[in-house]
Structures are given as C-alpha cells and as structure tokens.
Amino acid sequence: MSESQSSCSKHGAERACRFDAVIVGAGFAGLYMLYRLRQLGLAARVYEAGGGVGGTWFWNRYPGARCDIASLDYSYSFSPELEQEWRWTERYATQPEILRYLDHVADRFDLRRDIQLRTRVTGAAFDEATSRWAIATDDGARVSARFLIMATGCLSVAKRPDVQGIEAFEGDAYHTSRWPHEGVDFTGKRVGVIGTGSTGVQVIPALAEQASHLFVFQRTPCFSVPARNAPIDPAHEARMKASYPEHRRKARETRAGVIMEVNPKSALEVSPEEREREYTARWEQGGTGFLATFSDVMRSREANETAAEFVRAQIRATVRDPAVAEALSPRGYPLGTRRLCVDTRYYETFNRDNVTLVDVRASPIEEITPRGLRTRSAEHALDSLVFATGFDAMTGALTSIEIRGSGGASLKQKWAGGPRTYLGIAIAGFPNLFTITGPGSPSVFSNAIVSIEQHVEWIAGCLTFLRERAIDRIEATAEAEDRWVDHVKEVADGTLYPLANSWYIGANIPGKPRVLMPYAGGVGAYRKTCEAVAAQGYEGFRLSRTR
Questions:
Q1: Measuring CA to CA, which residue among 338, 90, 386, 374 is closest to residue 221?
Q2: Same domain assignment for residues 132 and 206
Q3: Average pLDDT for residues 243-272, to the nearest whole number?
Q4: How many helices (H) and strands (E) does the chain have?
Q5: How much is the pLDDT for 14?
Q6: Over 80: is that where the pLDDT of 1 sits?
Q7: Which of 198, 208, 202, 176 is nearest to 349 (CA)?
Q8: Does 356 reside within a domain?
Q9: Is residue 70 a contact partner of residue 287, using CB atoms and an 8 Å limit?
Q10: Distance from CA of residue 139 to its chain's centroid?
C-alpha cells in the first residue's frame, strides 16, 4: 500500500505528485493525523488554505477569542513529553496562546516539511481503475493519493449575514472568523455587532472597552454562564500533570470528553431550596459544567426550565435596566440546545453607558446603509460593522469542495437531504475517504481534542490493518450507513436538541436540511462502538484489492 515516500514529476508548468495520503487542513486534526501517518511510514501531504498552521485558531483572531474548554484538557494527550513541557497560563486559554501551542507542536515534531500552506483543495475525484484520489488545488498542482483525509474542521466556513446593502457600507466591515492579523483599533468608533452566539459573547465585552459606542444587534438571546477565568494555579497544574494518564483515560469515557461531576439526582426530585443551592454552586464554579447540575437537565423539558429560569434570574440580577434584561433573557428553546456560551462579564457589559442593545426580533434589520444600519424603527450611524454570524457548521467545509466518489457521485448532492455517514468517519460511495469529526460523530458535543485524537487513532489503526493484509480499498456499505444515520436520529430524538433552531441542526443556513448533525450519544459510548467495528474486522465496510 505504501509508496514509502512521495513522488512528484513536472509536466510543463504543472506539477504532479503521488502520496499515500493527502490531508486537508492543518489544525489540531491535520497536525496529529500527519504525525500518526509519519509513524506508520506513510508518505503524506497536508494542504492548508491559511498562511499558518492552527485551523480555527489561525483564522479566529477577534478580540476576546478564547477556548471554552479548560486549557489543561484542551490539548493533545499523544505525547507525555509535550504534556509535561507545555505551560498554560490561564484556565481558558486565549487564541494567541493556543496558536503558539500549535506552532510549537508543528516545530517540535518537524511537521512543517509536509505541510503546504496557502493552498486550497478545490476538488477531489475517485478513480475506480486505480482506487486512488485525484486531487486538485488552487495552485494548479495535480495530486494523487491512495487515501483522502478531511481534517477541515466543524466550524471553518464563515456565514455572512444575508442583509441588503452590505456592499454599500462605506465604513470598515469585519467577520470574526477572518479577523485582520494586525488587529483593529476601534478607539473613538461607533461599532455595530451582528450576532450574539459564542463568538459574539466573547467579542462584545472586548469591543465595548474600545468603541465610543457599541450597538449590539441581537436576534436570538443566548444562554451564557460565567467562565470564572483565572491564571492557572501552579499546584493544580502540578497535580494534573502528575495524574495526566489516568485523567485522560477517564475523560475518554465521559459523555463530553471532559471530567465533570454529574449530579445523579433529577432537578424535579429535590426541593426548590436544594435546586437553588446546586445551581448557585455551579454558577460560581463557572464553565459548561452547569449543564451537569442535575442528571435530567438535557433530557427533560421541565427539568431544563428550572435551569433556564435560574439563568434568567441571574441576568435580571446583573443587568440594571429591566427592559434590557428581559431582552437578553432567552425564551422559546431549552437551555443547552443552542451552544451554551461561556463568558467574561458579558451581561455586565450592557450596564455600560456606551452600549446599546438593539432587539432585531422586535425591530428587524431592513438594510445596511452607506453610513450605518437601519432597522424597522430606527437608523444607527456606524463607523464599523462586525459580523459574529457563525459558520456553515459541520458540512460546509466538505460540500464547498467538489468531491466526487464512485461513478462520479457528488458528495454535495448525496448530502442534499442532510449529511449521511457511517460513524462520522466514512461515507458510502466514497472509498478511501475519511472525515475527522464528521457529521454523525460527537464532534462539537465534546471536547474537540478528545474526539480528534480518537478519530485519528482509529484511522491510523485502520490503515495499519489494510496494509498488513495488502488491502488498498475500503468503503462504508450503504446498509451500515443507513443503520448509523437511523441510530444518530434515534439518539437525537431522545434529547432536547431538536427543539431549538440552532446551527447544530443547520437552522442558521437558509435551505439547509434540518438534521441534528453531531452524535448525541456521548464520547464514551461512541468510542466503544468504533472499537467494536474495528475488532470485528471493520464491520460495515467493504474491503477489496485493486485488480
């Protein structure tokens, strides 16, 4: 199966290269996948559209950008030496610190020599005769690979707002996921922010400290819990590093890939006083562990409402203007069914004299004008616009590439009714193609690094299995894919997630099918399923040799 090293040849102005595997994306997933393929002695090339490694952490440089998983957990576990030598400074690392970490990983393991930056993969077609992928890039290269591994990330294709007049705006406009690397100074500027999801919750407090006036255009208020961010206590860091192997093992067996204390009690079986004490304790602790305050918060609408009302009470206690507090209070969907935000003084920001909340559900945006933004009831003069409008999540990065499988079948067309995968790793009709944290896997419902490492290690194990048996083609069967899609839906229907119009189900993209794309069954259970598939000789896959 292996060609032992890559080979390239020149044909006029074009360059043709052959690899064992091509990896698309140089974020957490692409870097680790390259590392593992190197260990197997396989020739691999990573293509990355950005000017540096880091994936989402290369692109998302907006003020306030940071992780909402604790730094000591949001890191690789594959190298004990790396675990011990890297020093995180805060409970929740900022974007610059995470990017420094990924640059360090790329240098420490000498990964850059197999990464081609500023190169976008535009298309890939499977050749039935050779069982190889023909891959096209925007620099004109012709690339052939036995395996194509998509490490494109779940949140990488930005969604721009569909608002009339954007091109007419005469001020400066920025999307949070394509932030200028040199930064932006908003001092003395009238700034408008559109979007109040996870990104908006982070960027709004930071912009409020700079702008002469900040207008926050909110359609759907979010549930947000305080981060309680702080410098990492050296004693805590020492304890964690001393117990990393066992800590990581336990995390892999949890529902979300992070260890948190889950209260086994129902929110409905305890007294109101005990409920209040438990919610208060989690609120003071900070972070997404708030969802684990009681065992049924994400399963029972009635239990969930007790948590939601607690958060709304915190908003009312924090925001001085009752009308603003009410506008910021989410209603109409269960807490946690849209991504739970983790913030630093988000609600407090609306007590500032230079911040105005504009409820665009009550007064919709009609157009962006050359000098600002007009809603149904008012016109707001602006010098700058910031779009914190999110992503075409889970599928956008895959369908934006022209991927064609057996018989020329289009992935975009196959997914026209919603994504269909086997385990979130493979797709029927697309041999030798792997998706890291693809739709149908825990992905965004988990600590991404735990899920990435599990997928990379499963793929590496699969390629080893194939090589040992001289098999050069693997493809998910349609029957296995159908069973998995049905299972993902069945698990989703047992949760509250389908009750919200969230990006989890594609509701933020006009015309996108409403399907809960991540797997809601939990990291631990999912891992066992994947291990069982491998142990049964890759059950649900068709294995063959090229004639």
A1: 338
A2: no
A3: 96
A4: 15, 21
A5: 43
A6: no
A7: 208
A8: yes
A9: yes
A10: 27
Given the structure tokens 């969604």, which residue do they identify?
A: 159
CA dihedral 351→352→355→359, nearest 10 degrees, is 0
- Give the pLDDT of residue 12: 38
Tens of pLDDT, residues 170-181: 999 999 999 999
Picking from 361, 387, 413, the residue at the C-terminal end of a domain is: 387
Q: CB of 92 within 8 A of CB of 228?
A: no
Cβ within 8 Å of residue 349, ≥6 positions away:
204, 205, 208, 355
Is 210 a member of any domain? yes
Write the CATH number for 136.
3.50.50.60
Q: Domain range spanning residue 81?
A: 17-157+393-544
For 211, the token pair is: 């702008």
What is the pTM for the complete model shown? 0.96
Pairing of the two strands 365-369 and 372-375 = antiparallel
d(CA 396, CA 306): 35
Short-list 346, 369, 426, CA closest to 147:
426
pLDDT in tens, 337-350: 999 999 999 999 99
- pLDDT tens for residues 42-101? 999 999 999 999 999 999 999 999 999 999 999 999 999 999 999 999 999 999 999 999
Domain finish residue from 387, 420, 440 = 387
